[in-house]
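Note to self: keep these together.
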Amino acid sequence: MKLADMVNAYINCERSRGLRFRSDIKELRSYCRAMGDVAVEEVRPESVLAFIAGSGPVTARWVQKYRILGRLYRYAIGRGLASVSPLPAQIPRLPPPLTPHIYTIGELERLLMATYVLPMQALTMRTLLLLLYGTGMRIGEALSLTIQDVDLQMCVLVIRNSKFFKTRMVPIGPRLAMVLADYLWYRRRRPLPAGDSSAFFSTRTGHRLDYGWISKQFRRVRNAAGIRREDAARYQPRIHDIRHTAAVHRVIAWYRAGDDVQRLLPQLATYLGHVSISSTQQYISITTELMHEASLRFERYAQLEIRHA
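Structure:
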């Protein structure tokens, strides 16, 4: 049996279960191209290791490729399409996980001002940044919005088929609604190839913006804003870090307002589209500001306890 046929059988099986796993499919297609037109049993372990390792240093992507291929070969061996797995037996030591950059309010303002470096898409990028910070949405969710998903009368956004194949409704405040209304007026003057089902954030031809293009343009904006990490971090601040920033700033605001943060965290998890509160807790990065607010809360609690002791 050809390797490509085995991969196609696996993809069809997963799709029949209702899974999209687009990133997995892309990686599996790349795997087939790297191995060549060979039979399943002709795949050599050293070739598989070279594909997984790539040419750069070991990163989390190493494990991502390893797990994608691991699922493929578990399927194949379980159905008799392969006799053994050619994957390496050991996973190398990985670098520490990526620490997100929590933007300050000043840095966010500088990002918005720096959108001028994109003369043809300045308004689109500015609106996108405000939406990401105002809702904590995933960048993919924002780019998937259609015009009909943005209900400005009800101040609600409809997020369809998100990361975990669920649809949710995200309420927005009046100020963000005004920002989106201004952009919608501009957007309707661009082509609408699918009517109100057309992409909300679009190219000049009215089609959906590509994540790779957005990431590239965000780097231009970030550099123009003079925002960078000076520590030994492997990555410079990303557009995805705005989601982390939105979550952290919300928790800080709750602390300052004296709210019950533990009670509100499940609500934040639902708002962000997480399947469990543990995912949300990972987003609440420990920052100096958050530590300060938590310390003030504990100090007030301790003083109260001492008075009543």
